[in-house]
Amino acid sequence: MDDIFGKAVSEMSEFEFDCSCGKKHRVKIKNIAIGQNNIDIVAELAAYYGNQKIFLMADSNTYSVYGGKVEKLLKKEGFNLKTFVFKEERTLIPDEKALDHLLTEIETDTRLIISVGSGTLNDLAKMSGFKLHIPYYIVCTAPSTDAFASTMPPLTVESFKKDFESTCPDSIIANTTLMKDAPMTMIQAGFGTIIGKLNCMTDWVLARELSGEYYCETTVNLMLKAVQKCLYNVDLIYNRKEAAIHSLTEALILSGIAASFAGNLRPASGAENSLAHYWEMDAIANGRKRPIYGNAVGVGTVVMSSIYEMMAGRIPTACKPAKSAEIAEMLKRVGAYDDPKSLGIKREIFHKSVINAKDISTNYTVLNLASSYGLLEKFADELTKRFYD
Ligand SMILES: [Zn+2]
Hints:
It is a single chain. This protein is an alpha/beta fold. It folds into two domains: 3-179, Rossmann fold (3-Layer(aba) Sandwich), CATH 3.40.50.1970; 184-215 and 266-388, Up-down Bundle (Dehydroquinate synthase-like, alpha domain). It is built from 16 helices and ten strands. It has a six-stranded parallel sheet, sandwiched between helices. It has a two-stranded antiparallel sheet with strand order 1-2. It has a two-stranded antiparallel ribbon with strand order 8-9. α2 links the parallel β4 (53-59) and β5 (80-86). α7 (217-232) runs antiparallel to α9 (242-262). The radius of gyration is 20 Å and the shape is globular. The structure holds zinc ion (ZN).
């Protein structure tokens, strides 16, 4: 029964079904709350832990935007709370240093972690909850990332970004009234992350066709339906309409759920993410400013659809890649960067990334196919000219 299609994402918690792909899929998240001004839900859900110790984490930005309010609410309700705020002068990086810092702050009698933020804070909460066997709640502050429901957070260890196994959150609480007012670059990053799914799905079909890799039609259709809703609402997302931000948030949460159905990152991450990983690792290793990850994924999607176009005649007919011009147009409509030069990627780094990004992930993508034809150098030359001259 694939009646998951009739459910809103907030109705999917703990839902399980026998899928046409032969697997039983189960959403392990216990509560998914997406709505207007729903801060009270944080206290309602935390009540399950009574007067046991709760660790509330934020960084200085998310604390001033929302974490302080959550802290005030939980204190007023009499919860046994310890608050920790990352006060990083540099942008917080999800690396071994930040994780160590966090693990030393979380006291041994802590029974619940509540992370207020998106992106990096999410990834750190997941890893610390997993390492300490403590459940965690994600309180989203911006629709910027698809890490909310993910069980495989990427961490940077010795300057190399790797996906680690962890557990999904117990609860996700997304206040769309707050999230619609997030900085526009964060909203654009969320949109870039979602448009990237078009390439993930094509890479997944490619791998199924060429190597018989496991593939779940239901997961793909579920994800594509959520992506199409965001594409349809692109102008409303740009104008911060709350209903459209709600759809974007749903799609971002669904991405993590889809990955848990597949048991791997196929529905969430393809070659467009490998390019974004490559650029991010290069920036971190060389002390340069990183582009916001989702913005890089959006640009990576333009690049990968271009590579699919250059591979015309060499890809299986079942692969239906998105058109690069249409992806670029959508990114422009939301005010996001649509080429690597504007994103701030240096010319030589871009050239290298097209050749080497295939080594970032073990998943087979169009980059591996292009490499097997010996075409990557040529594509790197052509794309560098296209984007930089
Ligand atoms: Zn399935």
